[in-house]
């Protein structure tokens, strides 16, 4: 959840970092050519935000490097001159990860969009970081292979952004998340050094596992320039179903019953009544709008197993009060049913000017109490919430439909999300299942993982990025040491720290 104090943090970065002088800009232009450096107000506005509401900050400049060597040179220059860098894929992030800091340089990676090698013998694919996830799906599926991670934003997000956020998505329940498919990485580290970690060997335990350390680092430890992903055989067939329930609690019980029956669907997604009504209004799929919940379920694999699993799932749903069932008859139909879930965010976003979507996550057996709690909080604070998400893995997306011009309502929304995160932590869950900590969740991180863990994260960051060049202020505040080398005005910084900033 966005805390407007965060916005105050961002301009404050100029205390740490050098202004982007004409001299720095011409050095940047000499690295990547002036045609790849963007400094006009229009260009800066285009890269001043991501998918997160209420966060916006103009960068100092935007650069489009042409090679890993250029990325390395830009990082070295940033260290010499003292300005921050923010890597950016498609900017679809929902925790403010690619939102710039004042005077930062945005490094665009979305034009590095080539699929370099599909290795059908080793079941791997080398990609550039800017490949769109949905395009990778199509390319490998055309060869009978499958890249399972399937974020709701697959049509727009990049693999680089997915690796940086360790993105999840609709197939996480059966297939896991991005980290389960990253086999190797090439990256530029914060000192400008280029590293390659991992490779095509299925087993590889040489040294520290730098690959997994970089996955999910939200652009704060390295910039990915090439990514090796694991593929699996494409499932022989799939069955997609929409199951409707009069009562929300019945749908949650059906989810628990499916999991307990040892069937693992590829997708087990949930929409509440507010979301169903918005989806129907938007997409006209013929959904009944008077029911409390909908489950979108997909099973995939060998035909005989899929048929059997689908039958068992449907009978469990009937037993738990399903009032209507829709089973796809062909691929086109399946896409139509799946779109009920895929358009949920867009459909909710039409209702009010500001849509705040979060991803509080709980152990999957606790989805029902968590949903009940979210509804209570919304009622108590007189807010409109739509709820949907990955019910099968406990990853919920409570979504507040609000208006940023209404201060009072925004405060109520902030307070509501604070309660929701507290509850998720109390239930043994997490403040973020897949969107990352970024700017919006960092104030809750310590409550979940504890101060020792946050301090260890800070220590790691200090060691690998002593000048706080890569995406500083994301995940946790820097709280820099004053004895180390710091860019910017040391006196101003000390004064700022004395006032208790960043603690
Ligand atoms: C409608 C919608 C649905 C969504 N559904 C899901 C979902 O189901 N599951 C899910 O997990 N997320 C979802 N998201 C969130 C978002 O799409 C993911 O976080 C995605 O991984 C971001 O990719 P991106 O290319 O847009 O990255 P950006 O938003 O540009 O960047 C995200 C982070 O990655 C870093 N980064 C980008 N490229 C690189 C690189 N080459 N090297 C190092 N760091 C880099 C950035 O600095 C930033 O910290 C959704 C978003 C929307 C708008």
Structure keywords:
alpha+beta; disordered C terminus; binds flavin-adenine dinucleotide; 503 residues; five-stranded antiparallel β-sheet; 18 helices; 18 strands; seven-stranded antiparallel β-sheet; Uridine Diphospho-n-acetylenolpyruvylglucosamine Reductase, domain 3; Alpha-Beta Plaits; Uridine Diphospho-n-acetylenolpyruvylglucosamine Reductase, domain 2
Describe what this molecule looks like in 3D.
It is a single chain. The chain has 503 residues and is α+β, with helices and mostly antiparallel strands. The chain has five domains: 104 residues, Uridine Diphospho-n-acetylenolpyruvylglucosamine Reductase, domain 2 (2-Layer Sandwich); 119 residues, Uridine Diphospho-n-acetylenolpyruvylglucosamine Reductase, domain 3; 113 residues, Alpha-Beta Plaits (2-Layer Sandwich), CATH 3.30.70.2190; 89 residues, Alpha-Beta Plaits; 48 residues, no CATH class. It has 18 helices and 18 strands. Strands 15-12-14-13-17-18-16 form a seven-stranded antiparallel beta sheet, with helices on both faces. A hairpin with a 4-residue loop joins strand 17 and strand 18. Helix 2 runs antiparallel to helix 4, helix 9 packs across helix 11 and helix 14 packs antiparallel against helix 15. The longest helix has 20 residues. It is globular, with a radius of gyration of 23 Å. The two termini are 19 Å apart. Bound molecules: flavin-adenine dinucleotide (FAD). Flavin-adenine dinucleotide binds next to strand 3, helix 6 and strand 10. The site of flavin-adenine dinucleotide has 36 residues, from strand 3, helix 6 and strand 10.
């Amino acid at each position: 959840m966005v805390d407007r104090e965060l916005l105050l943090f961002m301009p404050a970065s100029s205390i740490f970092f050098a202004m982007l002088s004409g001299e720095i800009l011409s050095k940047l232009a000499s690295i990547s050519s002036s045609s790849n450096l963007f400094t006009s107000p229009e260009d800066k506005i285009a890269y001043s935000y991501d998918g997160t509401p209420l966060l916006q900050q103009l960068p100092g400049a935007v650069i489009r490097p042409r090679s890993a060597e250029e990325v390395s040179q830009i990082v070295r220059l940033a260290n010499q001159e003292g300005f921050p860098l923010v890597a950016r894929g498609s900017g679809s992030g929902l925790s403010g990860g690619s939102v710039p800091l004042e005077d930062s340089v945005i490094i665009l990676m979305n034009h590095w969009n080539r699929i370099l090698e599909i290795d059908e013998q080793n079941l791997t694919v080398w990609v550039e970081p800017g490949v769109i996830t949905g395009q990778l799906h199509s390319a490998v599926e055309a060869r009978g292979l499958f890249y399972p991670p399937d974020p709701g934003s697959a049509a727009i997000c990049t693999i680089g952004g997915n690796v940086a956020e360790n993105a999840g998505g609709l197939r996480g329940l059966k297939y896991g998340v991005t980290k389960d498919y990253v086999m190797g990485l090439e990256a530029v580290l914060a000192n400008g050094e280029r590293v390659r970690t991992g490779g095509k060997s299925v087993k590889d335990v040489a040294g520290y596992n730098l690959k997994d350390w970089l996955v999910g680092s939200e652009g704060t430890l390295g910039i990915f320039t090439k990514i090796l992903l694991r593929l699996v055989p494409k499932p022989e067939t799939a069955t997609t179903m929409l199951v409707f329930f009069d009562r929300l609690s019945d749908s949650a019980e059906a989810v628990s019953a499916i999991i307990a029956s040892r069937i693992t669907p590829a997708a087990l997604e949930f929409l509440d009544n507010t979301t169903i009504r918005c989806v129907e209004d938007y997409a006209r799929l013929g959904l009944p709008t008077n029911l409390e919940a909908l489950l979108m379920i997909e099973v995939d694999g060998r035909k005989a197993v899929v048929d059997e699993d689908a039958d068992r799932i449907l009978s469990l749903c009937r037993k738990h009060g399903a009032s209507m069932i829709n089973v796809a008859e062909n691929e086109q139909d399946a896409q139509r049913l799946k779109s009920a879930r895929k358009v949920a965010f867009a459909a909710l976003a039409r209702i009010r000017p500001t849509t705040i979507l979060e991803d509080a996550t709980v152990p999957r057996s606790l989805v029902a109490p968590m949903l009940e709690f979210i509804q209570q909080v919304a009622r108590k604070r007189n807010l409109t919430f739509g709820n949907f998400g990955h019910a099968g893995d406990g990853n919920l997306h409570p979504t507040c439909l609000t208006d940023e011009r209404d201060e009072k309502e925004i405060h109520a929304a902030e307070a509501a999300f604070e309660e929701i995160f507290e509850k998720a932590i109390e239930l043994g869950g997490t403040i973020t299942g897949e969107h990352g900590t970024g700017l919006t969740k960092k104030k809750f991180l310590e409550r979940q993982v504890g101060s020792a863990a946050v301090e260890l994260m800070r220590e790691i960051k200090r060691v690998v990025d002593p000048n706080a060049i890569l995406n500083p202020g994301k995940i946790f505040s820097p709280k820099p040491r004053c004895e180390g080398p710091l860019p910017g005005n040391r006196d101003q910084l000390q004064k700022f720290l004395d006032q208790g900033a960043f603690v």
